[in-house]
Amino acid sequence: MHQLLENVFGQAFSNPILDTRHDSAQLTFPPTGMTGTGDVKHTGGTPVPLRLAMTTDSYVVRPLFFPGGDIGSLAIHGTVNDLAMSGARPLYLSCAFIIEEGLLMETLWRVACSMRDAARKCGVQIVTGDTKVVDKGKGDGLFLNTTGIGVIEHGQQILPQNVQPGDAVLVSGDLGRHGMAIMAVREGLQFESAIESDSAPVAEVVLDLLQAGIEIHCLRDLTRGGLASALNEIAEAAGVTIAVDEKLIPVGEQVHAACEMLGLDPLHVANEGRFVAFIAAKAAEHALEILRRHPVSANAANVGRVGDKSAPLVTIKSAIGASRILDMPSGEQLPRIC
Amino acid sequence: MHQLLENVFGQAFSNPILDTRHDSAQLTFPPTGMTGTGDVKHTGGTPVPLRLAMTTDSYVVRPLFFPGGDIGSLAIHGTVNDLAMSGARPLYLSCAFIIEEGLLMETLWRVACSMRDAARKCGVQIVTGDTKVVDKGKGDGLFLNTTGIGVIEHGQQILPQNVQPGDAVLVSGDLGRHGMAIMAVREGLQFESAIESDSAPVAEVVLDLLQAGIEIHCLRDLTRGGLASALNEIAEAAGVTIAVDEKLIPVGEQVHAACEMLGLDPLHVANEGRFVAFIAAKAAEHALEILRRHPVSANAANVGRVGDKSAPLVTIKSAIGASRILDMPSGEQLPRIC
C-alpha cells in the first residue's frame, strides 16, 4: 500500500529533485533548471550557491503519548532526523496541527510544550504554523505535520548510489525500541519495566561525523521497516550486496524478549532515533569512536560490510554462524507508528 | 477557538520570526541570531544574504471536490498565495497526504493530478512528500498539507505595520465565491448556475506589481473571515482607521443573492484567490491598471482609504451613503472551508 502510494505521487509529481527519492529534497539557491520563473536576484552582492535540504512528514501516531515520547517530540525528532540524513544542519521547522473537535486543551498544551522543548534541544526554530479543526469522528485527536529546512555545509555526496564495495555498515544504537514501545502500549502488553521509545534527534551526531571529515557514503534513518528495509532499499539503489552479522547488531534484552514472544524480527521493527551509516572502511573506527561519544549513539556498532557490485542482496550471519537472506518485512507492518 | 489555538502555539513556540505572525515566515541566509548551531558556511564564495519565505497550511476542505476546484489545487493555490503575500516568488512545495483507509485510488489520483497541474501553472515544484494512512473512521477521506518556500527578491517592507495614512485599499477581484461555492454544495442549495470557487494563484500578479516598482505597504489574502477580518486585523496591527465604500466592493450577483438569502455578509465570506493590497496613494491607479491586466484580478477595485493613525477602526459607507462599523465576523464561521 505504502509503495503503491509512493508510486502514485512519484508518477504525478515527477521532477528531477523529487525523483532522487531522498529522505529530504536538496535545493540549490539560486535555483537552476527552473523555467518560467525568471532569475533569482540576491539582495546585494554576487550570487553564491546555497544548498538547502527540505523534508516533510505527517505524524499520526497512536497513542499520542507513549513511554519515552509523544507525538510532539516525535514530530520534531523525525523531521530533524530526515534533514540529518542528508548531512544538513536543521534550522527551521513549520508545524501544522489537525485537531479533532473535543481534544482537551490540556492535551494540546502538553504536546505543544513537548514540541517546544524538543525544538530547543535540536537547535531549531518553529517559524510558521497552521491549525485546522475537524468535526468529532473525522480525525483521531491530533495529527501533526512538520516540514523542515536545513543547510548543507559539507561537500560530500551522501546518497545510496554512492555506497561502495568494502564500506563499513554502522548502526547508531540498539534497535526496535520505538516500535515495541508503541506496540506494548497499544496491545496492553506487560513487561518487567516499560520499553521506552528511542525517539531522539541524531543531527548533532551526524554533524560531528562531518566535522571530523569522516567519509560518509550514505545515511538512512531506521524508521518504518527497520534495519531490514533500509539495507534492502540501499542495496537495491546501489546495486551491491550487503552482509551483516546478527551477533554484532545491538538489540536490548527487553526488545529481544518481546519480539520473540510476538514472533517479530527486531530488524523489521521501527526506530525513531537510530540510523545506519555507510562509511569508507578506513574511517569506520574513527566514526564509531565519534558516535560513541554521544549518548544517543553510545551503543553504535560496526555490524557488517558492503560486498561487490552485483545483484542486490542482503544477507545476515546468524548467531550460530549460518548465513541467510535478510528480507524486507513481509505482510502488514504496525500501522500508525509515527 | 481559532484565536485561542493561535495563542497556545504563539505562547509555546514564541521566537522573533514566529512572533511577526505573517502569513509566511521570513528567513535570512545565512541565519542571524541563532545560537548553538554555529556559523553557516556557504559552499564557495563570500556569503550574501538570501531572503526566503516559508509557509505551511493543512487542507481539510469538505467536500474534496467542489465547483471551481478541489482539495488538491486548493492546497497548491493556498500555499502559493501565502508566499505571495510577502512578495515572495514561490519555488518549492512539500506535500503530505493523510489518507483515510478506504479512499478510492481513483480519487487520490484525481487529486494528485489536480495538484500537478496547479503546481505547473504556478511555476512551483513539489520536491518532497509523505503519505500516512489512518484507519477508517479516524480521518475524512483525505487531508493535505503543503509547505512552501519562496525567494524574496524585492527590498520593500510588506507588512501590516507599514500601512500608512492615505494608502489606497485595493481588492483584487469579486468577493465571496469560494465560501459560497462550498456552502452551496454542502447545504444542497440550488442556484440558477453553480457558484464557482475563486480558488486561483495570485503570485504572478503580485510579482508584476513589484516588478513595476509599485510601493506596496501590505498584502493579505482574503481567506477565513473574508475582507472584514483582513481589514480589522490590519487596522489593529497598524493602529489606523480604514474606510471602505460598499458600492465600490465587487461582489458577483449570484454571491450577493445567495448571501442575502442566507443572511450572510459577503465581506465575511472566505475567498481563495483574492487579496487586499495597501498601496501608496500615488501608485494606486498604476497598481489597478496592472491588476486588471491579469484575468485573476481583472475586477480589481480601489475600495477605500486608510485614515489617520488612531484607535483601530474599520468603517464602511453603505450603498445609501450611511457609514457604519465593519466588524469582524461574529459567531460560528463555516468550518472546513479550506
SSE layout and pairings?
The structure is a homodimer of 338-residue chains.
Chain A lengths: L1 H12 L11 E5 L20 E10 L5 E2 L2 E2 H14 L4 E12 L4 H18 L2 E10 L7 E10 L16 E4 L5 H11 L15 H9 L4 E6 L4 H13 L1 E6 L7 H10 L12 E5 L4 H10 L7 E9 L3 E5 L5 E3 L13
Parallel strand pairs in A: 5-6, 10-13
Antiparallel strand pairs in A: 1-2, 2-7, 3-4, 5-7, 8-11, 8-12, 9-11, 10-12, 13-14
Key attributes of the depicted protein:
homodimer, alpha+beta, 7-stranded mixed beta sheet, 14 strands
Briefly say what this structure is.
Chain A is of the alpha+beta class and about 350 residues long. Chain A has helices at about 1-15, 70-85, 105-120, 175-185, 205-210, 225-240, 255-260, 285-295, and strands at about 25-30, 50-60, 65, 70, 90-100, 125-135, 140-150, 170, 215-220, 240-245, 275-280, 300-310, 315, 325.
Describe it:
The structure is a homodimer of 338-residue chains. Chain A is α+β, with helices and mostly antiparallel strands. Helix content of chain A is 29%, strand content 26%. Chain A has eight helices and 14 strands. In chain A, the strands form three sheets. Chain A has a seven-stranded mixed β-sheet, with helices on both faces. A five-stranded mixed β-sheet of chain A has the order 1-2-7-5-6, covered by helices on one side. Chain A has a two-stranded antiparallel ribbon with strand order 3-4. In chain A, strand 13 and strand 14 (323-325) form a beta hairpin. Chain A starts with a helix and ends in a 13-residue tail after the last strand. The interface between A and B is large, with 87 and 87 residues.
